[in-house]
Structures are given as C-alpha cells and as structure tokens.
Design brief:
- The complex is a heterodimer of chains A (76) and B (669).
- Chain A is α+β, with helices and mostly antiparallel strands and 76 residues long.
- Chain A has a single domain, classed as Ferrous iron transport protein A (FeoA) (SH3 type barrels, Roll), CATH 2.30.30.90.
- Chain A has 2 helices and 5 strands; from the N terminus they run βαβββαβ.
- In chain A, a hairpin with a 2-residue loop joins strand 3 and strand 4.
- Chain B has 28 helices and 10 strands.
- Classes of the chains: A alpha+beta (76), B alpha/beta (669).
- At the A-B interface, helix 1 and strand 4 of A face helix 3, helix 11, helix 15 and strand 10 of B.
C-alpha cells in the first residue's frame, strides 16, 4: 500500500521511496527512508495535501508525492 | 575570521543571528540571485563576522538556497561553521550536521531550544553528543539569549586553533562504509588538490548529482569506472539505491547518537499546544474562513487604519514643508523653472516614495508575525490545492492578496518564498491584482458612465484582472517556467511566539532596503516626468501643459490607442503620467481637460463612449505597474532585462485585453 491511502491515525513503516530527482532527494532528506515509521495526521481542508508525522515532527506533502512511498501498515 | 551560520529552516537561525550580532550588520546579495545574505560583526569580539546562510536540509545542488550555501562553504572557505540544531527536532537537524562535518571545517554545534527540552522534563547528554560527533556542542536558547557568549567563545576558539571535527566516519560497518572508504582512497589526491575533504568528495561522487563539483575533481575515465563499479556493488549488497543508502547511513548514525544522548519522556507542551491551535487553523471547515478573516484584518489594518493614518501624517508633514519652501522660494524670487523643479519635481517625488514607507513597515510587521509564528506554513498547507494548478505553491497566496492593496510591499513580500521559480512567477503575476491606487480611476469612470453601478464595474474589473493573471500563469507555466517546481515537501513547525526583536529588525531592514534601492529610481522617474511636463519641445519652461513635451509624447502615442476606442492625446498623456503613480491618471486628465476632479464625471463623456470607457478601464487595470512597483520588481527579479520585458509584456497584455473588450463589446451593444 502507499502513503496516500494510509488511514488517518494509523502507523506504518516505509518500505520504499519512489520518484526521482529533487523530489525524491527531498523526501529522503526529510527523513522519509525505508524502515522509518510514519502516520497521516490529517488532510488539508480542500482534500490535499496531507499532514504526516515522521521522526517526531510534522510534514506536509501532496497526495501525488505520497503515492510514491510504499508502506506496510503496522499491527495488521 | 568569517563564520557561516548554517541550519535547517524553522530552527531559530535568524533569532540566533540577531543574538550573535549587534546593530552593525549589512544585507548583501549574492551575484545573480535575489537572496539576502546578512553579514554581521560578532558581538564582543574584534574582526569576527558571521554570515547568515539560507535555511537548508541538505547540501545538494537543487534549490537556490542549497546552491548558495554550498558555494559559500566550499568556495569562500569560512574559518568556521556555526551549525544551529533544533534540539526539539533533533534527528532531521543532525542529518544536515553530518554533511557539514564531512567537509572537515572547524565547526561548533549550537543546540538551540534547550529551554523547551528542559521545560518538558527531557535531557540531552551534551558531553556525550560532543564526543560522538567530534565537535563542541553548546546548549543555547536563542530566543532567551542563553548560552550565546559560550557559543561565541567556543566558535572563535575552535576556528582559531583550526580544530577539525574529530569524528570522520559516520557509518556503521557494512557495504556503505566499505564503498565510501574505497572511493575515498581512489580520489584522495584529487580531493587534496582542490582542498576538499576526501570523505565529502566520496559521498558527492556516490550521490552523483553535483556535476559541477564532480567535474572539479577531474577524475580519469578509469577512476570513474572504478567508482561506479564499487557503487553498484554497494547497491546490490545493501538492497537500496545509492541515494537511499546514503540517507539511511546518515539517519542510522543520527538515530544512534540520539538513542545514547537524548532523553525525551513525553510529548512536548509546545507540540500539544500546536495540535490544539491546528484543530482550529487547519480545521476542515474553519481553516478557509479563518485564513480569509486574518487576511482581511491585515489588509484593513495595513491599508485602512494604521498605514493610512501614518501615510497621511507623513504626507501632511511633507506638504507643510513643501508649502514653507514654496513660500521661501517665491519670496526669494527664484527662477520659476527651479521653483517648479523643487516643488513639483523633488517634493512630489520624495513624497511619493515616502508614502509607501508606512505600508511597507506595517505590512512587514504582520508578515513577520505570520512567518515566525509558523502560520505561513499552514497557509501553504491550506491553500496549496488552489494554487497548484498555476504551478505555484500555497505560499504565494499571501503576497498576492497584499497585491490588491499595493504591489510594492507585495512584491517585496515574495522574498519569503523559498523557491526562486515561485518567487519570480509571483512577482510577474502581481500586477494583475488590481492595486488600491487604481480605485479612484474606477470610481470616477463609474460615476461618469455607469452611475449607481460602481460596485458591479469594480467587481468585473477585479475579476478580469485575476482571470488575466490565471491565463498568464498558465502561459508562463508552459513557456518560461517550464520544468519542475521545487518539491512541496515542507515542515509544519510548532507554533511559537515570535520574537519582537526579530520582527522589528525585519521591519527596519525592509524600510531601509526600500528607501535605498527604490529612492533613486522613483525620484529619477518623477523628475523625468516633471521635466517632460514643465518644458516644451524648444526646451522653454512652460506653464501651459498642452504645450509640454509630455503632451507631444501623448500626441505621438495617441494613435496606438485608436483601436481601443480612445485616441485623444490627453488620454494618452494621462496614461504616461500614470507610470509614476496610478492616482496621477485622474489628476492629469483633470488638468488637461481643464476640469476640476469633482467635475470630471461630466467632462469625461466628451472624450469617451461607454464602450471606450470600459476599454480604457481594462487598459488601466492591466498596463504597466507604477515606477515604485517596477523598482521593486527589478529588486526581486534581479535583472533589468527581465523587468523591462515584464513591463512591455504587461502593456501588450493590457492592449490585447482592452482591444478584445472593445471589439466584442462593440458586437454586442
């Protein structure tokens, strides 16, 4: 499953980070790397982007970009 | 000695810079980019300076911020680096630290927001962290000015003794470790030749995206192949591609450091408080109404209450002074041309420059508060979807709304946008947001041609402006600004109480910046327009405005406007004068028609039909912004060529839209 469809409040572990170029490097730099725990906190009022929680801080990213991050839901 | 202040965004870097330096600082520009780099003398020491570099998350060659920081650190070779680290967000902050340490430059870490850590019952083993990272770590609170003198002492001491970071290896044993070390070995001589640490060179070779840097290493084909081979071997063994493997290596090391030295026993008060505030500010239903209310409030206070009050106060003083000088000059019996230069040229020019100041100061007070509290990041979060189609991010929304008041501070406000692409595009779109100086033009024409329907006319004009802006944005997106925008992966920092000192310093800097850079341009333009208006074609001083050079230019230009339905030279002249300030369009028309401003609505129908009046309004809505806005544009675009192109393009668009309105209107009515 991918990060954009992770239900709000559920924890997951990143399996892989797709995409390319500056976008992918930015995601890696922000700490979104395979093995990292993430959760989705909320959706923006207009339905996009997402607010996610990673490494103890909050990050916003667009659904299209979150779709590039493969995850495994925890506790299922 | 020169120190570079480096750190993430939102880690209190500006606050620390302000605490490190006194009042003697100067804002410089790197050539070719419009990015402030502030340099300031370090307090309580002689001959030591600190340069505030843009907030970055990594040393990469993508965004302007990153390129500026990289170039400064690698090319200017500062004597030391002060790396500010937000202790409350330590993992991501230390990720940058590791990259800085690879450079082997004397470095100290300023561990900021230690007061928050302690306030939440957490501890950080400073000595332990310092040992693991191999550099001094100084706990500070930039906002409370704690630990600043210790930081200065340690930084100067480290740089003076040229103490390099003691730890050079940030990888746990494994394939990545082996790969970095074998590459370091291969390129040792090359790195030494250009004075760069071999580990930094090795990691850049693995990442492979900084072509400019890699070329400088001047490796042989054979060496390149050797390196590529060992990277591929590492990727296979590690099961990750090169970039993910390096990021993983760094984060794994940072996680280890944190596990051994950082104790956080609960979610911080600040984080919980932020969540509560966000329950309202980014709430599904409340977020947009709250955002628009905040914008309306700022707009009203800036352009209505405070700004207006200060502007009137200032212009009253200037008028008083002008009147006194006028009296003096008249009594002295000075040459009427000189008299006119001083009163109509100099005083009018200075007056128009000064009238912008209160707007800029008041607006930047609010913008600084929005930015420093952390709300601006939420604006981007909330508004992103709306602006994404234009190829912009949500952050551009705030300057654009300001643009409905005055383009000058709005254009200056784009400086806070972190992507140069977004910044330039927002600047170019700004003139489409109809500024408040055009309202008198709309009002007079509505009264003359569409009495009782002024609100409707204005609504149509404002919406046309926005529509034209959207069209142009779509066009720019497909042409000049093609290519990938900066990724929208952005931190939402905890809300914080802004520092008054930072806010006031920003207001002061913006005011000074505007005065210094805009003054000459605006004054010059005003005096040129004065000269054209005061002299005739034989260069005789003339009191008769219809005989002036300006009128000749108006006559010359009038035919251009014939297809738009108005070709009277007086209209063309007033549009030319409108370049100095939009308010001047109406006053010039009044003077040339020989009618008082209040009687204009009865005089105008002699020059315009209802249809050509609409065409004229559309033209004034869209044509060149005033000289002050053009000066601000030049500052942000960083190029006269682009600025002139933007102005010419703007006039062309205005002409095309007015023409379309006039022709289509002519078919319907």
């Amino acid at each position: 499953m991918t990060l954009d469809i992770l239900p709000i409040g559920k924890n997951a572990k990143i399996c892989s980070v797709g995409g390319e170029g500056a976008l992918r490097l930015r995601m890696l730099d922000m700490g979104l790397i395979p093995g990292t725990e993430v959760s989705v906190r909320k959706t923006a009022p207009l339905g996009d982007p997402l607010e996610i929680s990673v490494r103890g801080y909050k990050l916003t990213m667009r659904k299209d970009d979150a779709r590039l991050i493969k995850i495994r839901e925890e506790g299922t | 000695m020169i120190f570079a202040l480096v750190g993430n965004q939102n880690c209190g870097k500006t606050t620390l810079f302000n605490a490190l330096t006194g009042s003697n600082r100067h804002v410089g520009n790197f050539p070719g980019v419009t990015m402030d780099t502030k340099t300031g003398a370090i307090r309580g020491s002689k001959g030591n300076f600190v340069v505030d570099l843009p907030g970055i998350y990594s040393i990469r060659p993508y965004s302007n911020d990153e390129i500026i920081s990289r170039d400064f650190i690698i090319n200017e070779k500062p004597d030391g680096i002060i790396n500010i680290v937000d202790a409350t967000n330590i993992e991501r902050n230390l990720y940058l630290t590791l990259q800085l340490l690879e450079l082997q430059i004397p470095t100290v870490i300023a561990l900021n927001m230690m007061d928050e850590i302690r306030g939440n019952g957490g501890t950080i083993d400073i000595a332990g962290m310092s040992k693991l990272l191999g550099v001094p770590v100084i706990p500070i609170s930039a906002a409370k000015k704690e630990g600043i003198s210790e930081l200065i002492k340690s930084a100067i001491d480290t740089a003076e003794k040229k103490r390099l970071p003691a730890v050079t290896d940030f990888c746990l044993p494994g394939p990545v470790h082996r790969c970095i070390h074998s590459i370091s070995h291969v390129i040792e001589d090359h790195a030494q030749r250009i004075g760069i640490s071999r580990r930094y060179a090795a990691t850049k070779l693995i990442e492979g995206d900084d072509k400019e840097f890699i070329d400088r290493l001047d490796l042989s084909q054979n060496e390149h192949e050797l390196i590529e081979h060992s990277i591929i071997e590492m990727e296979n063994e590690r099961g990750l591609d090169r970039n993910a493997a390096l990021a993983d290596m760094r984060y794994a090391f940072v996680e280890d450091v944190c596990r051994l030295t950082v104790v956080k026993n609960r979610v911080s008060k600040e984080s919980l408080r932020s969540d509560k505030i966000d329950k309202l500010l980014t709430n599904k239903y409340a977020a947009l109404p709250v955002f628009f209310s905040i914008m309306v409030l700022i707009f009203w206070l800036t352009f209505g209450v405070i700004g207006n009050f200060l502007s009137e106060l200032l212009s009253r003083d200037i008028d008083l002074l002008a009147a006194a000088v006028d009296k003096g000059l008249t009594a002295y019996g000075i040459n009427p041309a000189v008299h006119s230069l001083v009163i109509d040229g100099l005083f009018a020019g200075v007056g128009s420059v000064i009238s912008f100041l209160p707007l800029i100061v008041v607006l930047f007070f609010f913008l600084s508060v929005l930015e420093d509290t952390g709300y601006m990041a939420r604006v981007a979060f909330v508004m992103d979807k709306l602006l994404r189609r234009l190829g912009l991010s949500g952050r551009s929304f705030v300057p654009m709304i300001i643009g409905f008041g005055c383009s000058v501070p709005a254009i200056m406000a784009t400086r806070t946008l972190s992507s140069e692409r977004d910044r330039k595009m927002t600047v170019l779109l700004m003139p489409f947001m109809s500024c408040s100086a055009k309202i008198p033009i709309y009002a007079v024409f509505s009264a003359a041609f569409f009495p009782g329907r002024a609100a409707l006319v204005m609504a149509i004009l404002y919406i046309s402006g926005i529509a034209a802006g959207i069209l142009v944005a779509a066009l720019l997106n497909k042409t000049a600004f093609r290519g990938k925008p900066i990724p929208f992966v952005m931190e939402l920092p905890n809300y914080r109480v802004p520092s008054l000192r930072t806010t006031i310093l920003l207001m002061w800097e913006k005011a000074r910046d505007f005065l210094r850079k805009a003054f000459t341009v605006i004054l010059l333009a005003t005096i040129i327009i004065w000269f054209l208006g005061a002299f005739d074609s034989q260069l005789n001083f003339t009191g008769e405005s219809s005989q002036s050079l300006l009128a000749s230019i108006g006559r010359l230009m009038a035919p251009i406007f014939r297809p738009l339905g108005f070709d009277d030279w007086r209209i063309a002249t007033s549009l030319v004068v409108g370049f100095t300030a939009k308010e001047a369009v109406i006053s010039t028309l009044g003077v040339l028609i020989g009618s008082s401003a209040s009687a204009l609505d009865t005089a105008l129908p002699a020059l315009f039909s209802s249809l050509s009046a609409v065409s004229f309004l559309v033209f004034t809505l869209l044509y060149t912004p005033c000289v002050a806005a053009v000066a601000a544009m030049k500052r942000e675009l960083g190029s006269w060529l682009q600025t002139v192109a933007a102005v010419v393009g703007q006039c062309l668009i205005a002409w095309i839209f007015a023409f379309a309105f006039y022709r289509v209107g002519g078919l319907i009515f």
